[in-house]
Amino acid sequence: MSVEEIRRALLDAASNRRTVTYGELMGRFGLARGDSGKTVVGMLGEVDRAENRAGAPGFAAIVVRKDTGYPGGGFFCWDDVPVEIRRPPERCNDPKLSHAERAYIRKQQERIWAYYGAGQTRLSGTG
User: Fold this and answer.
1) What residue ranges in the chain does DSSP mark as E strands?
2) CA-closest candidate to residue 25, choices 3, 56, 54
3) In this predicted structure, what is the pLDDT of residue 124?
4) In 10 A of CB 42, how many CB atoms?
């Protein structure tokens, strides 16, 4: 399992206007739960940092919980989330999303699907 393999799976989902569950990524790539290193969120973060460096939106908003269809509460603890909806650390594990958080995710998903659906498949300087 490599970062590029995970990126290709996310790219396939994005270009087809689909979401991917954390569980799907964990099962397909043998990833554990958690948010750093060789975990589902750690690897997603690695992929998204590379995408962001290349000016692309990344994929985090299309990786969702099976039970809610939205990313987990930890999504709203990242530094690049607008401050008005950014969560304090003690709320990072809360899966309940506010109306504003759900609206933000839907907007980000549309942005991702539009970007990658328009044929944006390669990072700058890659194959």
Assistant:
1) 20-21, 63-64
2) 3
3) 41
4) 15
